[in-house]
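Predict structure. Chain length: 575.
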Amino acid sequence: MDSPLVNFLPANAHFFSLQGAQLVLIIGIMMFFGSIGGKLFQKLKIPQVVGYIVIGILLGVSGLVILGKNTIAALNPISTIALSLIGFLVGAELKIDVIKKYGKQFVGILIGESITPFFVVGILTGTVTYLFTKNTATAVSIGLLLGAICAATAPAATTDVLKEYRTKGPLTTTILGIVAMDDAVALILYAVAATIASPLLGGHSVSFLSQLGAIAYDIFGSVVLGMGFGFLMSLILKNIMNEEGRVLGFSLGIIFLCTGVCNILKLDNILAAMFIGFFMTNFAHPKTKNMFKLVEKYTPPIYVLFFVTVGAKLNVWIVTPFIAVIALLYVSGRTIGKTIGSRLGAKVTKAPETVFKYLPFCLLSQAGVAIGLSIAAGNDFPDSIGPQIMLIITATTFIVQILGPICVKYGVTKAGEVGLNVTAEDIMKSALVCDVAMDGKEICSPDSYTIVNETDMIGQIIGSFSKHSNTNYEVRGSDGKLIGLISLEHLKEAMQIGEMAETLLAMDIMDAPKVLCSPETNLPEVYQLFSDYDTDAICIVDSEQKPLGILEKFTVDHYLHNQIVELNHRLAKMG
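Prediction complete.
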């Protein structure tokens, strides 16, 4: 039952039958409170995605039921859209040169982290099920099905954390490669498990070949469809590259169109969207790749709605003692299996040490494919173990969706990859004037060599110019405050008057400063000042208008360049 707060919804409400005001109110509640939850958890140093999910739990069927089952069902298209966008942006990271470099590593780790938990979870849950039921067929079937389902890793929560913390490096690359591929392994394992379990439970034998045929159709059909839509996107975007609004409109339109076609053809929309991104990043015109940034800017509100919906679906009140025990074994066995398997694969393929140590922390999240396979089990075995499988996966999804993002943050932080996926613009946004250094000396140091006194002789100043790379000086008055600015051009003009130049003082050739800034001024504002005042030098002063040094445009450019070079060196050392 839905809460009375949403009783204005028809009992059989669906997405397109919701009135506009109702839909806007529901989305507003989800986005507003979800954003608050994300910000609060971010303040607590916990990934924001956990906050979204917790708000969803409070609003959903486990809490206030503001988002009841009918409402959640009506909002399913939002989840579909979010998963397609996630797949598209994951595909953008799958560059051919990266695949060539890490291909062997990806395959080795993928096999290890998928197959090992299959056996660990299967044995643990199957054994305990037998102790509860004393039924061998049931125990074997539950072990096989849960072992197959546990191979899948949810990309959504994982990639959201990577994006939030701007990670880059071998661990991040491996995570993106693994979460993009292990769902396919889970589908194949499920086909094997269902084929064995069906006759054991007294059902009709299911042809393994027909199961594999269906999986092949799903995987290869999605790949071909995605590549086709990627080709279409590249043809359109190369003719409108300078029109950002149209680029975003066509990009989203093609992604959503592909998603709709997948639903009609019963194909995997995440995989198809991923291969649109894969095609665009590898085969499209280089200038069209700016489209990825535009799409990424569009995604945050969609992600908030998606994860709030994920939380709203989780029902924490359905757990029986048997389900609780099996769920705990499933989570612990899956964690142990993925840890052993991923580290074994990393060891065999000689992956970097950070991948070996911290990849297991980044493979815990479980959602879409696992839930989908549990629903398939419910449909395939409705009168035996199907409902129990669905309850177990629902319960464990609640656990790993909360803990998974926290573990991902821990892994990438310990690997030293947080904050490495940045551009010069990103660095500029967080940097202040006092962060900029020149020749190893803080530019805002009180004893800065870019400051002269008003009574200093021209000869002294010229000597100082010859020793340093700066081309401008601040002039300090007798009261210690800024009174002027001397540039290299001023000195050249003074030297043209001959011997008399040696008798001139700083105050004789200075100009009044055009523009001032403080040590706490941020670099975007500094660049705006450079542009607005058509100058390459800004005087830095404190709160009492005392000079602290000169900030020159080439110095800021050099600082940003060095920061990027340093990040690239760190990435290169990581392997």
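Summary: The beta strands are 437-438, 441-442, 451-453, 472-476, 482-487, 516-517, 537-541, 547-552.
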